[in-house]
Amino acid sequence: MPCPHRHPVQCIIPPYILEHMAHSADPHLREMALVALAAASAVRAVRAFAQQMPTMLAAPSPAGRRHRLVYDAHGRDDLPGKLVRSEGEKKTADAAVNEAYDFSGDTFDFFHSLFGRNSLDDAGMSLISSVHVGEADGRGYQPMSNAFWDGSQMAYGDGDGAVFRRFTRSLDVVAHELTHGVQAFTSNLVYRGQPGAINEHFSDVFGTLVRQWRAGEEAEKASWLIGVDVLVPAPTRRAIRDMEHPGTAFTDDPALGSDPQPDHMKKLYTGPSDSGGVHINSGIPNRAFVLAAQALGGPAWEQAGRVWYEAMLQLSRTSQFADLARITAQIAGDSLGAAAKKAVKAAWKKVGL
Ligand SMILES: [Zn+2]
Q: With CB atoms counted within 10 Å of each terminal CB, which end of the chain scores lower, N or C?
């Protein structure tokens, strides 16, 4: 969960949830959140270590071949940890290892079979995951309640067991993190303000699309919830985010608070928290994407997904919501025709763009 706003690590659980937990009446939740918010230096060490990984680990594989490596961090924060399963090796007895392996494979297959993309960098990069990642609290280590992409690999915590479960359980969370990797090699949007919210948006779009593709769901009937499988069920929480109805994923939850995502430009967050609202304002383009996918019909990855993938390649580091709206309408018109362009424009109009 170490993801302070000044740090470039891209994680699934936003700082506003941690800040709420830091004020919880539950001393366990409070301590967990405070540790996470104070963990900036530990994460910097993790990143430094990750950047020193032998380059052979990221050796390209032959075109279109998956190359997955799963490591066990044994509850610590030294990444990547001990190699426990390589490409082609049999299942292990550890569910987290098998989930990280299977779900990173599904994500690779999605981008490869639909868009011809050969891994994150389109050059066969290895997919490196560390499971059982912990975080230091000064006296020792405790399970991390987060998942993140650190610029070169994925890292997954086991959760605290009270609010969060192990983060590999969710295909949309795994695909969300890997999409941050794809973005690092494409638009590489700055992780702040509107470009940062578009970065989070693309990860949510392809996070859910990989899951819908795997399940064979049509856009009309699909689930647009992110992170259902990583939450311990409670009546006050349904998911980490709801792309179709931003701002409704959790309400008056004792640990999480209430979902702050806006669903329209007139509610755009303009404060400094969460790197200028990267996990908050992503609700606006998320809703536009769902409306466009539903209007275009069929499975969302076939039409809307293709348009958004192409947009992810075309945007630049500082693109704004208005740029994304304009480019997706243009791509829809060029690739799918005038009716599709109209549908995409109408979807953006409904969120105020
Ligand atoms: Zn993210």
A: C
Q: Is residue 2 part of a domain?
A: no
Domain boundary among the residues 129, 162, 184 is at 184
| Cα(173) to centroid(ligand 1), Å | 9
CA of 175 to the centre of ligand 1 (A): 10
| pLDDT tens profile 329-339 | 999 999 999 99
Q: Which structural domain, as residue segments, surrounds residue 297? A: 193-350
178 Cα: distance to centroid of ligand 1 (angstroms) = 9
Tell how far the Cα of 10 is from the centroid of ligand 1, in angstroms. 5
Residues 261, 159 share a domain: no
Mean pLDDT of the chain: 90
Q: Which residues have CB atoms below 5 A from the ion given as ligand 1?
A: 10, 203
Q: How many domains does the chain have?
A: 2
Is residue 158 in some structural domain? yes
Provide DSSP, 266-334: GG---SSHHHHHTTTTTHHHHHHHHHHHHHH-S-TTTTHHHHHHHHHHH--TT--HHHHHHHHHHHHHH
Q: pLDDT per residue over 14-31, tens digit each?
A: 888 877 887 777 777 777
Clarify whether residues 39 and 83 are in a common domain: yes
Query: Based on the domain organization, do 174 and 197 belong to the same domain?
Result: no
Question: What value does the CA radius of gyration of the chain take, rounded to a whole number of Å?
Answer: 19
Question: How remote is the CA of residue 108 from the centroid of ligand 1, in Å?
Answer: 18
- Answer with the one of 140, 160, 184 that is the final residue of a domain: 184
What is the 8-class DSSP label of residue 38? T
